Amino acid sequence: MTRCPACQADLELDGYELDVGETIHCPECAEELRVVSSEPMAVKAVDEEEG
Predict the structure, then answer these.
(1) How far is the CA of 18 from the CAs of 2, 13, 37, 51, in angstroms?
(2) Which regions in the chain score pLDDT beneath 70?
């Protein structure tokens, strides 16, 4: 299970074909997230990467 780093909501990403580098939005807080790992699935807030 992957969690949004901004609001800690569970992200149900199983069954989706997501590639590393792809961006998604958290359905709870709308934070823009980038997939940083596919096995295990991990995401990071895009604005964290800009720093």
Answers:
(1) 13, 8, 9, 24
(2) 49-51
